[in-house]
Design brief:
Elements: E1 7-8, E2 12-13, H1 15-21, H2 23-35, E3 40-43, H3 49-55, E4 62-65, E5 74-75, E6 78-82, E7 93-96, H4 102-108, E8 117-120, E9 144-153, E10 156-163, E11 175-181, E12 187-194, E13 201-205, H5 206-213, E14 218-227, E15 238-243, E16 250-253, E17 263-268, E18 274-281, E19 294-297, E20 304-305, E21 315-319, H6 320-323, E22 332-336, E23 345-350, E24 353-358, E25 360-362, H7 370-373, E26 383-389, E27 395-401, E28 410-419, E29 424-434, E30 441-442, E31 451-457, E32 470-477, E33 483-489, E34 491-492, E35 515-520, E36 527-533, E37 546-551, E38 557-563, E39 570-573, H8 575-578, H9 581-587, E40 592-597, E41 603-609, E42 618-619
Parallel strand pairs: 3-4, 3-7, 4-6, 7-8
Antiparallel strand pairs: 1-2, 5-6, 9-10, 9-14, 10-13, 10-15, 11-12, 11-14, 15-16, 17-22, 17-25, 18-21, 18-23, 19-20, 19-22, 23-24, 26-31, 26-34, 27-30, 27-32, 28-29, 28-31, 32-33, 35-40, 36-39, 36-41, 37-38, 37-40, 41-42
C-alpha cells in the first residue's frame, strides 16, 4: 500500500498529495532527482516523506525533522534524526521536502553540510499560469483536479458533462487543463478548454477529442485540472458512455472522486450470462507492483492478488472471473487497491449490451456508533438511503446492501417503500445481515407503480451502525433487457435537529436545508430525465417548493418551471416535457437544468433514455 494520506472526512483533501500527484509534478520531479548527488539528506518539515518517497522512490541516505516527537520515527523507510544533526550527515545534496520553502531554506542554511547542493519541492511547482492563487502554492484551489475514465474505441464513446459552478462563487475566468493518457499511460494529448464566464454548462466528448488531435481508437484516463476557480476545489461531472456506432449500449456514472483509497466496495459478481470487467487506472507516476491490487469476496478475507504490474497512469481491464472464477451474483467483491487508484469504474456486458458504473470508497477509519441506535424521537428514522423505483410496467427495480467500512461486520436494515405521492406502501425487515451476505431483493412485491424505497437502520435483532450505510441499485428494462445500476450512501434528511454534522445541505448549514442539483439535457436520440426524491427523517414541510431552471451554455436563465413534491414522495422529471421546444433550442447543446429548492434537501438520480430500450442512471451531483 502506498503510504500516502489523501483525504480526511472532516478536514477534506490533502493538498500536498494532490500537488505531488499532478502529472506535471511527476515530470518535474524526475529532473529534480537527476540533480541530487549522493549521499542525499532529506529534511521533512511538513511530514510528507512517506508520500514523497512512495510516489517517487529515490535513494535517500538520511532523514531529518525539527519536531522532537518525530525523532526516532520511521518515515519513508528511514529513521528520523534531529535537524540539528544534519550538518554531520556528510550529505552532498539536501532535499527540503516542502513548497514555498525560501524562508525555510534561509533559516536552516547555517545547519546544512558545507558545500552541499540544496533543492526544494519548489523545483516541481506547476507553472504560474496553472495556479489560481499564486501567493500560496498549497492553497486547495490550486489543485481542483480529478480523473475521468475516457474511451473512444470498440463502438463506444464517452462524454464528460458539467457546469462552471465556480462562477456562482465569484470565479471570473475558469479554464481546464486537460491531459489524456492511453492504455499504456503514454500522453496522447494535452490541451486547455475555456469555460463560460457564467455558470454555463460544458462538455468534453471523446469523438471530438479524437478528431481534433487525429487520434486512433483509445481507452485511458483524462486528467482534469480546473484553473481560476473559487469556493470549490472538487471537479464534479457526469460521464456518459454511449454507443457511437448506434448500438444499444448506454450508461452514466458520477464523478471519479479524486482520492485514492486502500479499499473499494460495491463491485457485483457477474450473473451466469454476464462478464464484469474492473477498469484499473493507475493514478500515479509510480508503477503498481504485481500483487499490489487484489480482489476478495466481501467478508471472505481470502484476497486474490493480480500478478501483473500496472505502469504509470496506465489502464488495465481486469475480468473479475480471472481472479475469482465461479463467483456469481448476488455475491459482491471488495477491491484491495492499496491507494493506487481513484474510485474505479466497472463494466458489465450482458447480451451485447454494455453498462458501466462505479464502486465506492470503503472507509477504514470508522467504528460503530452506539448513539445511532438511541437517537431521540426528534431525529425520526435517522439515517436514510433513498433510491428510485422506476415505472414498474417497464422496469424491474432491485437493490443489494453493500458493506462500505472495514469495521462493518453486520448491517441491521429495514426497507421502507413509498408511492410517488408520499404514501407509505409497505416495509420489509431485512435482518441483521452479515458482512458476507448474499441478499439481493427486487421491489415487484410491493405493488408500487412508481415511487422510491428507503433503507434505514432497524435494531430489532441487534446489530451495530456507523452511519455509512450503502447499497447497489439495479434497474432492468423488462422488454429490451438493458440494465443500469448506481450506488450511494445514507444521510439524515430534512429534520431541524442535527446529529454529527447531519443533515447535510448543498448550501449553508442546517436547518437552512436547500437543493442545487445538476441535470444535463439530452438530444433528439437520447432524452434526459431525473427522479427527484424528497426523503425526510422526521416531519418537515408537507410539500417541496422546487424550481426547475433551464440555463443556456453561458449560464443565462431561459425558463423556469415549478414542481411540487410531497414529503416522502418523488417525481420523475423530463426536461423535454417541462420546457417547450423553443426554450430547449435556446438552451443549446451545453444547456442544463438546475434543480433548486430553498426549503428542503432533495436527492436525485439522473440519466438518459433512447428509443431502443437503452437507458442510463446514476445519482445526481450538487454544487
Amino acid at each position: 500500500m502506498l503510504r500516502i494520506q489523501t483525504f480526511d472526512a472532516r478536514a477534506g483533501g490533502n493538498v500536498i498529495y494532490k500537488a505531488l500527484a499532478h502529472p506535471l509534478a511527476a515530470e518535474a520531479i524526475a529532473a529534480l532527482y537527476a540533480r541530487l548527488e549522493p549521499p542525499v539528506a532529506l529534511y521533512d518539515p511538513d511530514g510528507i516523506a512517506d508520500a514523497l518517497l512512495a510516489m517517487y522512490p529515490t535513494a535517500v541516505d538520511s532523514l531529518f525533522v525539527h519536531d522532537v516527537a518525530a525523532v526516532g520515527q520511521t518515515r519513508g523507510g528511514l529513521t528520523a534524526r534531529a535537524l540539528t544533526r544534519i550538518g554531520e550527515s556528510g550529505a552532498r545534496s539536501v532535499l527540503i521536502a516542502g513548497f514555498d520553502a525560501a524562508r525555510t531554506l534561509v533559516r536552516v542554511a547555517p545547519m546544512l553540510p558545507t558545500g552541499a547542493m540544496v533543492a526544494t519541492l519548489d523545483d516541481i511547482r506547476l507553472p504560474d499560469a496553472l495556479l489560481t492563487f499564486r501567493a500560496r502554492y498549497l492553497d486547495k484551489l490550486n489543485f481542483a483536479t480529478n480523473h475521468a475514465f475516457f474511451r473512444d474505441a470498440d463502438g463506444l464513446s464517452t462524454r464528460v458533462v458539467s457546469a462552471n459552478y465556480w462562477a456562482n462563487y465569484g470565479a471570473a475566468e475558469v479554464r481546464l487543463w486537460l491531459r489524456l493518457f492511453d492504455t499504456d499511460g503514454a500522453v496522447l494529448a494535452t490541451w486547455e478548454q475555456a469555460l463560460p464566464s457564467g455558470a454555463g454548462g460544458f462538455s468534453i466528448d471523446s469523438r471530438e477529442v479524437r478528431r481534433r488531435f487525429g487520434l486512433g481508437p483509445f481507452t485511458g484516463q483524462l486528467f482534469i485540472h480546473a484553473i481560476g476557480v473559487a469556493g470549490h476545489d472538487v471537479v464534479k461531472y457526469a460521464l456518459d458512455t454511449y454507443a457511437s456506432d448506434n448500438g444499444a449500449s448506454l450508461s452514466c456514472t458520477h464523478d471519479a472522486n479524486a482520492w485514492p483509497s486502500d479499499r473499494f466496495a460495491g463491485l457485483p459478481a457477474p450473473r451466469a450470462d454476464e462478464t464484469v470487467v474492473l477498469w484499473l487506472q493507475n493514478s500515479h507516476a509510480v508503477p503498481i507492483p504485481a500483487g499490489g491490487i487484489a480482489l476478495d469476496r466481501m467478508g471472505a478475507e481470502r484476497p486474490v492478488a493480480l500478478a501483473q504490474e500496472i505502469g504509470p497512469f496506465a489502464t488495465v481491464a481486469l475480468d473479475v472471473a480471472d481472479l475469482l472464477p465461479g463467483l456469481r451474483w448476488p455475491a459482491q467483491l471488495e477491491i484491495r487497491a492499496g491507494r493506487h487508484v481513484v474510485r474505479p469504474r466497472y463494466e458489465v456486458t450482458q447480451n451485447d449490451r454494455v453498462r458501466i458504473a462505479h464502486v465506492n470508497v470503503e472507509r477504514d477509519n470508522l467504528r460503530a456508533d452506539p448513539g445511532i441506535a438511541t437517537l431521540p424521537a426528534e431525529m425520526g428514522r435517522g439515517y436514510i438511503l433513498p433510491f428510485p423505483i422506476l415505472p414498474a410496467d417497464r422496469f424491474r427495480t432491485s437493490f443489494q446492501p453493500t458493506p462500505m467500512s472495514t469495521a462493518q461486520t453486520n448491517l441491521p436494515i429495514r426497507l421502507d417503500v413509498f408511492a410517488a405521492d408520499g404514501t407509505r406502501r409497505g416495509e420489509s425487515f431485512l435482518g441483521c445481515l452479515r458482512r458476507d451476505h448474499g441478499l439481493a431483493m427486487d421491489l415487484d412485491g410491493f405493488d408500487v407503480e412508481q415511487g422510491h424505497g428507503e433503507l434505514v437502520y432497524d435494531f430489532r435483532d441487534g446489530g451495530e451502525a456507523d452511519g455509512w450505510l450503502h447499497a447497489l441499485f439495479r434497474y432492468q428494462d423488462r422488454d429490451s433487457g438493458h440494465a443500469a445500476e448506481s450506488s450511494f450512501g445514507a444521510h439524515i434528511f430534512n429534520t431541524a435537529m442535527t446529529y454529527r454534522d447531519e443533515p447535510q445541505s448543498y448550501a449553508g448549514p442546517p436547518p437552512g436545508l436547500t437543493t442545487r442539483l445538476f441535470l444535463k439535457l439530452g438530444d433528439a436520440v437520447r432524452r434526459s430525465f431525473a427522479v427527484l426524491i424528497y426523503p425526510a427523517s422526521g416531519p418537515w414541510h408537507r410539500f417541496s417548493s422546487t424550481t426547475l431552471q433551464l440555463l443556456d451554455g453561458s449560464g443565462g436563465l431561459i425558463a423556469e418551471q415549478a414542481v411540487q413534491i410531497a414529503c416522502s414522495g418523488s417525481v420523475m422529471v423530463w426536461p423535454h416535457a417541462a420546457f417547450d421546444a423553443a426554450a430547449l433550442a435556446a438552451a443549446g447543446p451545453d444547456g442544463y437544468v438546475l434543480v433548486r429548492d430553498q426549503t428542503c434537501r432533495l436527492f436525485g438520480y439522473h440519466g438518459l433514455m433512447d428509443q431502443a430500450g437503452g437507458f442510463s442512471l446514476d445519482h445526481m451531483f450538487g454544487f
